[in-house]
Amino acid sequence: MRSAKLSLVLRQLRDHGPRSRARLATELGLTRSAASALVAELADLGLVRAAGVERGGMGRPGTSVELDGAAVCGIGAEINVNHVAAIALDLAGNAVSEQRLAIDAHRLAVDEVLDRLVELVRLAEAEVVARGGLVVGVTVGVAGLLDRPRELLTVGPNLGWRDVPVGSEVRARLGAAYPVSIENEGNLAAIAEAVPGDPNRQDVLVIFGEVGVGGGIVAGGRLLRGHQGYAGEFGHMIVEPGGRRCGCGRIGCWETVSGLRALLDAAADPDDPVRDPALSLDDRLAELNRRADLGDTRTIAALDRVGNWIGIGAAMLTNALNPSAIVLSGYFAEIGQHLRPSIEEHLLAGVLAPQAGGTRVEFSTLGFTAAVRGGAAVALETVFDDPTVVAPPHPDVLVGGAR
Question: Which segments constitute the HTH marR-type domain (predicted)?
């Protein structure tokens, strides 16, 4: 019962920002003395701190409290075709460590990819520990169909992986005392975009584009996984029968016309440097933006074509689900200013409801960190579920800027 009440207070501060003890008591149906005692216990755990004076309302101004947890971190990691990455976030969502390595995962052995991922996780963990912090968990996102109960990547079309026990392989390499979990990277990107407490981000579709296209469905602030956990594989909707063969083996999947490969094929010849996988993805996209800004007709035509296909697929999803927003993440967000007109035109034309049923098109501000940020958020849920899992900080450990 005590941990449940601590969780309630901690989530209220996460979802709604700094609050006085009196305001917390009112909002959560607690007595003021109970709210004060819970805040004091969370402060002893290093999870909240004073945040200034809250003014307004009746009575004397109260001292507000906010999330601290600078010494408590979750790590999110990701395996994708073009990179492996890891990030450590503290309880307030601040990045303590960011690691990213460009690779061509399709050409590497599975063991080598996993080794490189674990190296990045260890680097992130080392930075947390060097700051006197505690890692409470790691969540790894992977591109492909994931059997979550067995933590088995059943099919990773663009990775070229089948039946890879990612969970046990990562866990064996890390040998860590903290929990390690595995999730689809599109689902993690969706979790990162569903901002707690923001009413405009509680019913959204997140579409994540890189070599493949995937994403997640958030309804009422909760991720929808589907009957067996395979929801969100948007990239494999058939939109062009008789079109190109997809990495999954089928013909005409949405990602064959809207994924990064489709854009690069349309925008540049095979020997163009922008097609070179040795060049970082950020640099390749920056070059495409530069060419479009300069009015290069081939680049603009390629962006329009991909934008058209994104809009067509987005309209199909909107007719089925009517989200408040479609959030485009991954590479889509990096070139979003050039894609938006085509996407919105085809969304409006393809949705039966007037004005696309009120569905907005938004672009993620998280870039290629959406999946790892979502992973870190999932890892931190263990603290929000039960704050008592965090041992009281040692007096010599720096927490919230004071010893």
Answer: 8-51
Q: Exposed, middle or buried: residue 357 (CB in 10 Å: 0-12, 13-18, 19+)? A: middle
Q: How far apart are CA 87 and CA 231, in angstroms?
A: 25
With contact defined as beta carbons under 8 Å apart, do 67 and 42 qualify? no
Write the pLDDT tens digit of every residue in 43-85: 999 999 998 766 555 555 678 999 998 889 999 999 998 889 9
Average pLDDT over residues 379-402: 70
Q: Which of 386, 383, 381, 375 is nearest to 191 (CA)?
A: 375
Backbone torsions φ then ψ of 310, nearest 5 degrees = -60, -45
* Closest to 167 in 3D by CA, of 187, 155, 183: 183
Domains of the chain listed by start with CATH number = 2-67 (1.10.10.10), 72-190+369-389 (3.30.420.40), 199-365 (3.30.420.40)
Q: Do the Cβ atoms of 129 and 122 come closer than 8 Å?
A: no
Mean pLDDT across the stretch 309-335? 95
Q: How many Cα atoms are found within 13 Å in the side-chain-facing hemisphere of 300? A: 7
pLDDT grade, residue 210 (50/70/90)? confident
| Helix, strand, coil abundance in the chain, percent, nearest 5 | 45, 25, 30
**Could you give the residue ranges of the DSSP H alpha helices within 67-158?**
110-130
Q: What are phi and psi of 163, to 5 degrees?
A: 50, 50
What DSSP element (H or E) covers 50? strand 48-54
Partners of 140 in the β-ladder: 77, 182
pLDDT of residue 397: 41
Name the pTM for this structure.
0.86
pLDDT, one tens digit per residue, over 250-269 is: 999 999 999 999 999 999 99
